[in-house]
Sequence to fold (138 residues):
Amino acid sequence: MTSHIQVRDYMLYDTPVVKREMPLTKVTELLCNKNLLGVPVVDENKKLVGFISEQDCIEKLLTSSYHCDMPPVVSDVMRSEVLTLAPGDGIIELADSMKNNKPKIYPVVEGGKLLGIINRTQVLKALTENLQKCHIPV
Fold:
């Protein structure tokens, strides 16, 4: 029953994104206001070029804040190599991978373009809903 559950069935399509030149202070404002752990970085064609997380921001902002430097921008701290998924990838395989791998959020990409994200919460939702379907009422 679980083999047919795909990333596209649980991914979040309307996710905030940021651009490389955005000041880190604006990114952290977005992360805090939307209660996000991270966001994809895209170019003007919505092509995924990186990812930035809360953790990525902390060290750079700490240093800038301590020295009263100019605030850094996204390209100063973003990760360019990002683990991504395709919409047709399986939830079960993703959940199995999440047991040992660090990313909590995966951008979902098709043809190089960002379609959305999937996070641990969405994976838990998919697994829980599937488990509920497995049980036959007594």
